[in-house]
Amino acid sequence: MARSGFITAGTWCVDRNITVEQWPNEDLSARVVDMQLSGGGSGCNFAMDIKRLDPEMNVETTSLLGAGENGDFLIELAQEAGIRHRFTRSTQAATQSTDAYFSQASQRRTHILFMGVAPLLTPDHLVFDDSTARILHLGLPGVHEKMDAPWGTDENGWVTTLKRARQSGLETNLELLSVEAATVARLALPCLPYLDTLIINDYEAGALTGRPCVTDGVTDLSNCARAAQDIIERGAMSCVAVHSVIGAVCVDRTGACHAKPSVMVPSDAHRGANGAGDAFAAGFLYAWHQGEAIADCLTLAHATAASCLRSPSASGGIGTMADCLNLAATWGWRDLAAI
Q: Are the C-beta atoms of residues 175 and 138 closer than 8 Å to each other?
């Protein structure tokens, strides 16, 4: 079977994107400037981003939703976007949701999670048998209790799912979550032999390797590159990309390291960082799917992430591939030599 496109699996949730003037200290209050309802989670964000980059691309998804109107909202969202869905509905809990706060003062985000059906998700809810997609985007380790636990003889349900996906003929990519470093390593390291690509942020690269990739909020791209090399040597990936606010690096199977600075997003265009990592992954893997060189994958990845920052929601700011690239060219790129 000739395969094309993407299938996402794992986290689908409803995001309440709440912009506040500034994040308050405990016992104090903050003024809400804006609130928008949208889909969220790695499964939703990546699927929506790909459809925005290329409305004609085949995009599928599989996940577990809960009872009630939030689950109905996500199904309608997928259908309107043209995403072929295989959702299982549970009556045991509500659909997972997130209050995603963005502080105008600090330009930083804070997520408060309502777990809902998240602890109930298992590999058996993620179905690939009739998929015609080429690449699986799976996430998120750290918020799904049964997936995070051993499954059969496998270290966790993520390993089981990746094995099943590969047996179905899919290439595999894993989206991580920036939880406690030891948890990131415990859940993700056993998955590396079953991945074709891995796209992570600077914090997650440090969590997987113990290298100081971020110190006092400052990214060290040299250590990110070393971390990417450490990771690729432990897995089956063709490449490992590590992204940050200032730029990204990608190490391929030959050991070659590619670097690309990020887009200089004007402060008055920055509306929220929710979903920026998903957008980077979507841009990178869309270009990878199309057979582009790693340098071009990094360019589209940064351009897509920059476009994402224009909206409080995870996907609302993203346009077509051409739109994203044109926007990046207009805003310009950071000086890689300076970082």
A: yes
* Residue with the two structure tokens 């805003």: 331
Digit-coded pLDDT (tens) for 146-188: 999 999 999 999 999 999 999 999 999 999 999 999 999 999 9
Is the whole-model pTM more than 0.90? yes
Which long-range contacts (C-beta less than 8 Å, at least 24 apart) are formed by 113-118? Answer: 113/143, 115/143, 116/13, 116/66, 116/70, 117/64, 117/65, 117/66, 117/90, 117/92, 117/93, 118/11, 118/13, 118/143, 118/144, 118/145
Contacts 24+ apart (CB under 8 A), 161-165: 161/9, 161/123, 161/126, 162/136, 162/138, 162/191, 162/194, 162/195, 163/194, 164/123, 164/126, 164/128, 165/9, 165/128, 165/136, 165/138
CATH at 285: 3.40.1190.20
Would you say residue 173 lies in a domain? yes
Structural domain range at position 63: 6-338
Tally of domains within the chain: 1
pLDDT digit string, tens, across residues 240-255? 999 999 999 999 999 9
Is the CB of residue 225 less than 8 Å from the CB of residue 302?
A: no
Give domain status of residue 1, yes or no: no
Question: Mapping DSSP to helix (H, G, I), strand (E, B) and coil, where does residue 297 land?
Answer: helix
Counts for the chain of helices (H) and strands (E), in that order: 10, 15
Please name the residue that has the structure tokens 């030891």: 182
The span from the CA of 25 to the CA of 197, in Å, is 40
